[in-house]
Amino acid sequence: MRIEMGPSAARHGPLSALVGHLELSVQGCRAELLASTLATLGPFLEDELSADVQPMKIRLDNITITLKDDGPKIYPTAPQPQPATFTIDQVVLERSDDGLFRIKGGAGPDSAGGAVVCLEKPDSSCSVQPQQSTSPSQSPSLGSQLLEAQLALSQALTDRERLLLEVRKYDPMFDL
């Protein structure tokens, strides 16, 4: 973690010279979170956030977050919910002087490749910039991402069928 204040922070932007600039890098982290914990963070963060824009750059590399549902079951016969695992590999979250959050993905911390997604007010427009080119070294990564997506789709279809069977126990005439 690095925090710059004063004239040395001006290299990041004019606002950084006034309010400072935060850089944070997280690598190789594994976390397991309960869904109820995440649900209670919202009201806490709403009270603690400042209206001032704080320029920052957060680098995330090889992060695994497992989200477990600890809520009560709606139906007693429902299957146990499966934990959801999110893997974040080489992502940069930036907030510049304009106050917009930008999420960048790429091969390295200062890579120009990858897509950019701007997070701002819901009623504003935002642009997405696609990756310019794919090198042969990125093909295995894309192949593994495709395989993961296919597995996720297969799991979702299996879950859908299981849920339809559960609904049909209570209403045999139910059909999509």
UniProtKB/TrEMBL annotation:
UniProt cross-references to InterPro entries, sorted A to Z: BLTP3A/B (IPR026728)
Superkingdom to which the source organism belongs: Eukaryota
Pfam families named in the record: BLTP3A_B
Name of the protein in question: UHRF1-binding protein 1
